Amino acid sequence: MTLIKIFPDWFISENHATPEAVFLNRRRFLKGLGLGAIATGISSTLIGCNFTNQDDIKENLKSANLKALTFTKNSSFSLDRPLTDEAVAATYNNYYEFSGNKDVWKHVDKFTTHPWTLEIKGLVNNPQTLAIEDLIAKMPIEERLYRHRCVETWAMAVPWIGFPLKELIKLVEPKSNAKFVKLSTFFRPEEVSRQDLQSYPYTEGLTMAEAMNDLAILAIGIYGHELPKQHGAPIRLVVPWKYGFKSIKSIDKIEFTDRQPATFWNTLVPNEYGFEANVNPNQPHPRWSQATERMLGTGERRKTKLYNGYESYIGDLYQV
Ligand SMILES: Nc1nc2c(c(=O)[nH]1)N[C@H]1C(S)=C(S)[C@@H](COP(=O)(O)O)O[C@H]1N2
Ligand SMILES: [Mo]
Questions:
Q1: What confidence tens digit (pLDDT) does each residue in 98-142 have?
Q2: 93 ligand 1 Cβ < 6 A
Q3: pLDDT in tens, 156-178
Q4: For ligand 1, what atom is nearest to the CA of residue 265?
Q5: Cβ of 304 less than 6 Å from ligand 1
Q6: Whose CA is nearest to atom 1 of ligand 1?
């Protein structure tokens, strides 16, 4: 019980906000909730709050040998808050294929991200399967400072490096009947222990209009270098006006379709996680309020902004 007192107040609400256990494999998860597992959960959570040795974390990031990237800075996206500390952002992650305790960085060693190919298919004139380096070479690489808002109420602000999703869309020339883009995370249950749970691979989707919006990017880096595995190496989606679960990690397939694709969380828990999933302070999650958010690292509480503050970029995407 004394341990509970040292939790930051948002720890409890996020613990409630982790429904994967209930919906994916209840029995196994409950078994995993022995004392040891609880202790691990506590320490990893505290890392996100700066209570743990930052040197270990910095050492871990250094040993990942992340290549520095070349990019231009796109200054049209300004922040209303300081950037989140890099080590904090890299040690407090949602990536359920590896861990449900935010301590993903401790569980990614076996995950190989080189070589990596991206398959782009479906209702397009130019389907292609590309080595990730070849795709990157064709794309305008820029850095953008974006806010990120998880549906669980934690938030961060980070410098992503990547390219607009619409540039990739232009490359493959969608047919006129393409209405949605479906994105999938790699599927290698032999390498990633938690992928033996049902419902993987993780999938997400956007309408074509959302995918063509200038805000939607495919990120290949963060803080000046390649993405660490826990952030979704080597390529992940970033759609900052939507809750974080839409920003699917480690993508190996992009498919253009004429109907709304089934997506991971929406399929598992449709009444809690919509397909659209735009950040909205006035629409509470069925189990908690979305009115405020907590910044990772500092614990600062802020008012949630409609579309995560990106309303002016969204234009007429949604009829309100
Ligand atoms: N494949 C996959 N992508 C994923 C997730 C996941 O569990 N698996 N979690 C999502 C959620 S809930 C969030 S908030 C963000 C977190 O991104 P970050 O860990 O880089 O901050 O990734 C999203 N992308
Ligand atoms: Mo999230």
A1: 999 999 999 999 999 999 999 999 999 999 999 999 999 999 999
A2: yes
A3: 999 999 999 999 999 999 999 99
A4: 12
A5: no
A6: 249
The residue to mutate among 93, 95, 149, 265, having the most atoms of ligand 1 within 8 angstroms of its beta carbon, is: 95
Q: What is the pTM of this model?
A: 0.88
Helix extents (H) in 6-97: 9-16, 20-24, 26-32, 35-47, 54-63, 86-89
Residue 12 CA to ligand 2 centre (angstroms): 15
Count of C-beta atoms within a 10 Å radius of residue 125: 9
Question: Can you tell me the distance from the alpha carbon of 141 to that of 219, in angstroms, rounded to the nearest whole number?
Answer: 9
DSSP readout, 224-267? TEEPPGGGTTT-EEE-TTB-GGGS--SEEEEEEESSPPP-HHHH
List helix spans (H) across the chain: 2-5, 9-16, 20-24, 26-32, 35-47, 54-63, 86-89, 132-138, 165-172, 208-212, 264-268, 311-314
Say how many residues make up the chain: 320
Residue nearest to atom 7 of ligand 1 (CA): 95
98 Cβ inside 6 Å of ligand 1? no
Three-state SS for 199?
coil
For residue 49, what are its two tokens? 């709050």
Alpha carbons within 13 A on the beta-carbon side of 167: 16
